[in-house]
Amino acid sequence: MTEQAAQRHPTEINLHAKSRVLTIGFDDGATFELPCEYLRVFSKAAEVRTSAKPITGKEGVNISSIEPQGQYAIRILFDDGHDTGIYSWDTLYALGRDKEKNWAAYLARLEALGYRRQEPEQGEKRVRLLYFSWLARKMRKESEQLVLPASVADVDSLLNWLGGRKKGAAVLFAPGRLRVTVNKQFTEGFTKLHDGDEIGLVPSSPMAPATPDLL
Questions:
Q1: CA-to-CA distance for 30 and 25, rounded, in angstroms?
Q2: For residue 52, what pLDDT band results from cuts at 50, 70 and 90?
Q3: 8-34: average pLDDT
Q4: 3-state DSSP of the chain
Q5: Out of 4, 6, 57, 80, which could bridge 89 as a Cys pair, Cβ 3.0 to 4.6 Å?
Q6: What is residue 2's predicted lDDT score, i.e. its pLDDT?
Q7: What is the edge-to-edge ordering of all strands in the sheet holding 10-16?
Q8: ∠ CA(130), CA(136), CA(138), 5° rounding?
Q9: Among 61, 65, 13, CA closest to 37
Q10: Helix 89-97 and helix 99-113: axis angle, to 10°?
Q11: How far apart are CA 32 and CA 41, in angstroms?
Q12: Are 196 and 124 in contact, with CB atoms under 8 Å apart?
């Protein structure tokens, strides 16, 4: 079989194993965040494409490795043993472009089947926060132990939650104000949080924002 030339080509591919997300950027500037579960249930493997029922039970699936397939695709190996899915560049682009529509249709099929997805670690999480530079002065502490509510699932929702804990604190945790580490690794906003994580909040500028004295 002759390989068909791809219309789109990736400029970078990164697996964020902790968050179970594959990020991929393309030569037209588009960047997509593709959850491992999404890639798994939309695998192009024959046994998935021809199944009469949607694939279920993959809420916690992760990618164990990625293998190049010539100049046009990758083979994704999942930690549940599935290793026959070949994803061309155009397939990955389409999955990213149509993710919202595809996922809504998938959830509708699950509902019709009577299946309820079980999000991993939906409950409370006990974490340790480390404050650095001017943030430690503003918070009047260098660290604290917190129990995060179930609604705080990732870094972005953590910052939003922290900004609402005290009057006037939102400016301290505004987008772009801080760089965040999870277990000593700098992370993205979509990075998932888990029980026992150590989270560092590092100001991205040496200048502290003005806040009320009560902080």
A1: 6
A2: confident
A3: 94
A4: CCCCCCCCCEEEEEEECCCCEEEEEECCCCEEEEEHHHHHHCCCCHHHHCCCCCCCCCCCCCEEEEEEECCCEEEEEECCCCCCEEEEHHHHHHHHHCHHHHHHHHHHHHHHHCCCCCCCCCCCEEEEEEECHHHHHHHCCCEEEEEECCCCCEHHHHHHHHHCCCCCHHHHHCCCCEEEEECCEECCCCCECCCCCEEEEEECCCCCCCCCCCC
A5: 6
A6: 43
A7: 10-16, 21-26, 31-35
A8: 135
A9: 61
A10: 70
A11: 17
A12: no
In the structure encoding, which two tokens stand for residue 138, read together?
Answer: 């503003």
| Alpha carbons 109 and 41: distance in angstroms, whole number | 12
Side chain identity, residue 25 = G
Q: Which amino acid is at 66?
A: I
Tokens of 191: 């990075």
For residue 215, the model assigns a pLDDT of: 54
Q: How far apart (Å, rounded) are the C-alpha atoms in residues 3 and 140?
A: 61
Q: What percent of the chain has pLDDT over 90?
A: 71
Quickly count: other Cβ atoms within 10 Å of residue 21's Cβ. Answer: 24
Burial bucket for residue 211 (CB in 10 Å: 0-12, 13-18, 19+)? middle
